[in-house]
Amino acid sequence: MAGIPASCNASAKAEKTSGAVPTVTVRSVLNQLGLDRAAIVGHDIGTMVAYAYAARYRGRTEKLVVMDAPVPGIPPWDEIVRSPLLWQFDFGGPDMERLVSGRERIYLDRFWNEFAGDPSKIDEATREHYAKLYALPGAMHSAFAQFRSIRQDAQDNMVSMGTKLAVPVLAVGGQKSFGSNEAIVMRNAAVNVTEVVISNSGHWLMEEEPAATIAAVRAFLTSK
Hints:
By secondary structure, the protein is an alpha/beta fold. It has helices at residues 5-8, 20-32, 45-56, 77-80, 94-100, 104-115, 124-134, 139-148, 150-160, 181-187, 205-208, 210-222, and strands at residues 38-43, 61-67, 169-174, 193-198. Helix 2 crosses helix 3 (45-56) and helix 6 crosses helix 7 (124-134). The two termini are 32 Å apart. The model is unreliable at 1-17 (pLDDT under 50).
């Protein structure tokens, strides 16, 4: 899914959000922290950013964790992007902004309800919190711009895929969402991929099955 800042690790205020920009931002933060190498973890659009980072900074990435999202341009991207569930990738522009204005909660509920294995796991406080954020001036404009950058990301990633990642990769999918497809995608982009499918979860892994998700990521990051 996309555009929900709780999980996508991308700012609703970022006007330009193609993969290259967030990766440089992540690298800048790590430089400020004095960290030359790091394990990178991403969920949702954060998965797209995490892969782009690992591909750009191969010598500075120790491990990569990607969770329940496709990676633009990485097969079977062409089949995945045809899913009617992903109509939001091409939803945007001034008229779409007018349609959603004042109805941000309706727009966001669609993601939580259709992408969750159990929509009740996304509580009312969470829904209200992000609906208010996306109602701020310019926020939905930026969210739509984020989706429009995906086509360029696909082109960039097809180039990066020419040299597969050598670092260990954990591909996590929700049983009721992306499932084993996460590992299928990453095996086209990396040589050392571990697959985990989180039972009873849809797309919102940390809201639906946080304990199992954290355990899987922690076990991978601490393994030799």
